[in-house]
TrEMBL record:
CDD domains, per database record: AdoMet_MTases
Organism (species): Streptosporangium amethystogenes
Gene that encodes the chain: mra17
Highest taxon listed in the record's lineage: Bacteria
PANTHER family reported for this sequence: METHYLTRANSFERASE, UBIQUINONE BIOSYNTHESIS O-METHYLTRANSFERASE, MITOCHONDRIAL
InterPro entries named among the record's database cross-references: SAM-dependent_MTases_sf (IPR029063)
Molecular function GO terms recorded: methyltransferase activity
Name this polypeptide is given: Putative SAM-dependent methyltransferase
GO biological process annotation, one example: methylation
Keywords attached to this entry: Methyltransferase, S-adenosyl-L-methionine, Transferase
Region annotation Disordered: where it falls in the sequence: 1-24
Compositional bias annotation for Basic and acidic residues: 1-18
Length: 213
């Protein structure tokens, strides 16, 4: 197991205490309405890359997507599965499945993609973009939410941070250019830092990318 996977396994237990992972009902609704606005249609197969404990996978399933959440951390995935069980709705339920899997190893084809705070943990976002391109339909939209923060690795991040060029957050224009070089020429980004209703009212910068071919 790599140091990075071990790091996320260790963090799984407390992950839901991190900002954005213990959403109130109002915050969940605010995220759902933003996502419903951004995705042209909320149906079809959606890949949630680095889904963690599945907070956003489940919101996306509630919107109508058939969600596949993947994460290299087995511990994160067991939390996500447990959370999904707690969300079953009588007579129907959500369509969300979770796999312990590196995004680079996904198979099949998806109609939409989501990731939140994952690109900074990936040494080569261009390689990930290639994978997304190879496993999505032509019109698929990848919504990527990322954070930019005071990026000096400390505490639990001291060791893993050293090996990550995106630690502290990629500059949005750098990521946009990477995406463009890897087949997503129409990528745009905008700040969502002013959306206090989404739990973004801290000193960090929160950016939402629309990654499009
Ligand atoms: C900062 S956490 C974000 C989790 C979740 N998306 C959220 O918003 O809370 C980053 C997650 O990405 C996962 N991850 C990192 N690299 C990955 C990869 N190549 N494939 C799948 N998951 C990955 C980690 O295991 C970790 O759970």
């Amino acid at each position: 197991m790599s140091d990075l996977v071990a790091h996320w396994d260790r963090r799984a237990e407390s992950h839901d205490e991190t900002p954005g992972n213990s959403l109130t009902a109002e915050q969940s609704e605010a995220w759902k309405s933003l996502l419903a606005e951004v995705y042209p249609i909320c149906s079809g197969r959606l890949l949630d890359i680095g889904c963690g404990t599945g907070t956003y996978s489940l919101l996306l399933a509630e919107l109508g997507f058939d969600v596949h959440g993947v994460d290299t951390s087995e511990q994160m995935i067991s939390h996500a599965r447990r959370k999904a069980l707690g969300r079953r709705v009588p007579g129907g339920g959500l369509s969300a499945t979770f796999s312990t899997l590196a995004a680079q190893d996904v198979a099949g084809r998806y109609d939409a993609v989501f990731s939140r705070n994952v690109l900074w943990t990936i040494a080569d976002p261009g390689r990930l973009a290639d994978v997304v391109r190879d496993h999505t339909t032509e019109s698929a939209l990848w919504v990527a939410v990322e954070t930019i923060w005071d990026g000096r690795p400390h505490g639990a991040y001291r060791e893993v941070g050293k090996s990550l060029p995106g630690f502290g957050g990629w500059h949005p224009n750098v990521l946009r250019d990477v995406f463009a070089r890897h087949g997503f020429a129409r990528t745009t980004w905008s700040s969502i830092s002013n959306r206090a209703d989404l739990v973004t009212a801290d000193k960090d910068i929160h950016v939402l990318f629309r990654v499009i071919r």
